[in-house]
Design a protein that fits this description.
Distance between the termini: 41 Å
Number of strands: 14
Oligomer: single chain
CATH topology of the largest domain: Rossmann fold
Strand order of the largest sheet: 3-2-1-4-5-6-7
Helix content: 40-55%
Number of helices: 19
Structural class: alpha/beta
Number of domains: 2
CATH class of the largest domain: Alpha Beta
CATH superfamily of the largest domain: 3-Deoxy-D-manno-octulosonic-acid transferase, N-terminal domain
Largest sheet: 7 strands, parallel
CATH architecture of the largest domain: 3-Layer(aba) Sandwich
Shape: globular
Strand content: 5-15%
């Protein structure tokens, strides 16, 4: 049954290749990175290989996974300097982040390409060209043909920092004829939590350790964080950020901000008071996906809000009259989350106010920025629960309650703690749960030492 399921799946993904090309062409109109080296997606590579027998394949599908992989890759490179990396991605933001990572820690012989589309032919070409000795998949990415091909070629394949939500488990069980052989063929799974481990076991995956979340080991960019904190100290108003916002959530956030702004404007007009900003705080929105920056800016204008974009600031926001008179700041830059968290007094957690599972709240905590999260945090279930229990995050029912709670945190209104107290709780929370990188590195030693012995033989 399982072989028939994978055969049918293989036919479907092979026939779907023209649709993928069209999708990439459309996506590339907004994000040109998707138009780069498209043939790599189908297993056609031109990269010359050096020391190919030492290649360790690391797949980090998107931006978040690539940032998570960075901690592990830096540790791997420090302990195994002869190791060569084969880094793959599925999204343009992930590829761009990976390029920056290799620029920082890369060595001759490292390779970066798109992940192969999971057709049997593309996957076979990928393995035949690069001949990796070990594969590390970050967090969630399991592709049936890639797993089967790695097993066929005797290449160990390990799921690192693995997470599995109840929703994902339900979907996987619904496709059990396809998913059970794939999870069962992995060499090892290193899960984030016991709950994740239990779900992986239900799929027949060989769980070999529960090490926590690698994201706790990330260190915020100190220069960015210090700059943001310096700006915050200089500003006359507190900053309320909506961090990593997602489609469907921004409209509700801007609706709440618009209501506050228009009510304040009416009050100012009634009292005939001259002011550059009618509300007592600055609203900052940082969309999760860069292709939506223009869309979110236009949405804010539709709500009657004045917008200032980070990309148009020549220096700090205080140096820009437009920024200081704007109702909403748009964080339309990449790689500056530490700056934004340093600038903000409190952050609403994107992805948690719609049933999307929530974004990473650990980064905010490590930057000392209190978090207000909505009801949907199934992608970071344990981290969200721990943050809430330790006072680093506050949970609310919806966006209206979220904005109200965030402003109460800023003012320290009872019964909520002050933002400063929550910030300290966040720093303690982030520090308390570090250590996953060291545990993962120790567990991988058996595979990496085997690679070294094979290379020396």
């Amino acid at each position: 049954m399982s072989e028939w399921a994978r055969a049918l799946y293989s036919v479907a993904v092979t026939l779907g290749q023209p649709l993928l090309r069209r999708k990439l062409a459309r996506r590339g109109q907004q994000e040109p990175g998707y138009l780069e080296a498209v043939d790599e997606r189908f297993g056609y590579y031109t990269q010359p290989l050096e020391a190919a027998s030492e290649l360790v394949w690391v797949h980090a599908v998107s931006l978040g996974e690539t940032r998570t992989a960075a901690m592990l890759l830096k540790a791997l490179r420090a302990q195994y300097p002869a190791l060569r990396l084969l880094l793959t991605h599925g999204t343009a933001t992930g590829r761009e982040e990976g390029r920056a990572l290799l620029k920082s820690i890369g060595q001759p012989g490292d390779v970066q390409v798109w992940q192969p589309w999971d057709s049997p032919a593309a996957v076979a070409r990928f393995f035949s060209h690069f001949k990796p000795r070990l594969g590390l998949l970050m967090e969630t990415e399991i592709w049936p043909n890639a797993v089967a091909e790695s097993r066929k070629r005797g290449m160990p394949l390990v799921l690192v920092n693995g997470r599995m939500s109840a929703k994902s488990l339900k979907q996987a069980l619904r496709l059990s004829a396809l998913s059970l052989p794939a999870y069962g063929a992995l060499s090892a799974v290193y899960a984030q939590t016991e709950e994740d481990a239990g779900r992986f076991r239900q799929l027949g995956a060989p769980v070999a350790g529960v090490f926590g979340n690698l994201k706790f080991d990330a260190t915020p960019d100190a220069v960015q964080l210090e700059k943001g904190q310096r700006w915050r100290e200089t500003l006359a108003q507190p900053v309320l950020m909506f961090a990593s916002s997602r489609e469907g959530e921004e409209n509700e956030f801007l609706k709440q901000i618009s209501a506050l702004v228009h009510a304040a404007r009416a009050q100012v007009a009634m009292n005939s008071v001259a002011t550059s900003s009618p509300i007592s705080f600055k609203a900052l929105i940082v969309p999760r996906h860069p292709q939506r920056f223009d869309e979110v800016a236009a949405l804010a204008v539709q709500h009657g809000l004045r917008v200032s974009r980070r990309s148009q600031w020549s220096g700090s926001p205080m140096d820009s009259k437009e920024a200081m008179t704007a109702d909403v700041w748009l964080g339309d830059s990449l790689g500056e989350m530490a700056l934004y968290y340093g600038l903000s007094d409190v952050a609403l957690l994107g992805g948690s106010f719609a049933p999307l599972g929530g974004q990473n709240l650990i980064e905010a905590a490590a930057c000392g920025c209190p978090v207000v999260m909505g009801p949907h945090t199934f992608n970071f279930l344990e981290a969200a629960a721990l943050a809430e229990a330790e006072g680093a995050a506050l949970r609310v029912a919806d966006m209206a309650e979220g904005v109200e709670a965030a402003l109460s945190l800023i003012t320290g209104s009872p019964p909520l703690a002050s933002a400063a107290q929550a910030a300290q709780a966040g720093l303690a929370f982030a520090a308390r749960h570090r250590g996953a990188t060291a545990s993962t590195l120790a567990a991988l030693r058996r595979y990496l030492q085997a690679d070294r012995a094979a290379a020396d033989a």
